[in-house]
Septin (Limulus polyphemus), 369 residues
Amino acid sequence: MASDTARQFANPEMPGYVGFANLPNQVHRKSVKKGFEFTLMVVGESGLGKSTMINSLFLTDLYPERYIPDASEKIKQTVKLEASTVEIEERGVKLRLTVVDTPGFGDAIDNTDCFKSIIHYIDEQFERFLQDESGLNRRNITDNRIHCCFYFISPFGHGLKPLDIEFMKQLHSKVNIVPVIAKSDALTKKEVMKLKRRVMQEIEENGIKIYPLPDCDSDEDEDYKEQVRQLKEAVPFAVSSTTQTLDVKGRKVRGRLYPWGVVEVENPEHCDFIKLRTMLITHMQDLQEVTQELHYENYRSERLAGKAVPRKMSTGLSEKERIIQEKEAELQRMQEMLAKMQEQMRQKQSDDSRQATPSPTNAPLPQSD
Ligand code: GDP
């Protein structure tokens, strides 16, 4: 009996083996059990193919009941933010993916203020996280902070528009921006290269900091190094997307069918769709780390330095907690008022007594109690 137990807990074939080499497996098991959370934001003018790309990236229909407003509605429209969450499972690993769409971006006649609501939304998620972190139940915090923002650039211009530059400038210290050239099938290979060069040049000239893919460690394997090199080279990713599957010479491919041929979205010779997906999946952890260590820390230190919570920002408290907080604040106000009134009465009493008993000269001062 005793020897059975000994065999269960020790490894007689490997004396001196403590077993902490197994720690990574424990972390892995725990993470798989808990699942992963990721929030992606997509920004860009309507019609650039954002919804199509999100649906094709994650092979899901994230917007089953989408309503597209007509031009007259768009004139009055402000940017609305809509979060849709899906739980995707692949080989037992669960991913809770939230995609935040920004319909109305760039649609109005005057777009001066159209990124204000996006900044507000990002800050609100940081604030909620900050409140949750300092609350009682820190274990089960849902992380809704934006980990990555795909910024869609039109393929029809000659580079970035003033709106693109202004958006990225205002947001680059709050979120990981990944620039994407939309509908790249509208351009020839040469035109894509030209537009990419132009966009990168303008990004640099304007001091915009897009998400930097991390450098590889020297001991990383060669295939991985090559993959990262190609990903870095592909920025801004020029993508085409579709959710349609076609039959091309006996092969099932996801592609866009034109009279002159098929654009295969998952073919790296045709576009960067697969590179963008690889970037997102292989760097999900890094995108989360940069969000936590850079963007969230920026927000946190600003808040600790006394910057006020943005106006109308909800604090992430439940209705019950909010009522309790309000009652506590009211109680404190009443206590302060009471203390003030008591002080005034004491003052008045001592004044009255001084007037009632005229003190002879050189008489000792009244003793305070
Ligand atoms: P969103 O408003 O940015 O979400 O754009 P949608 O995803 O609704 O796409 C608008 C239109 O563009 C639809 O007719 C799509 O079929 C089309 N579309 C989407 N992706 C692409 C693409 O990669 N290339 C081309 N040429 N058209 C696309």
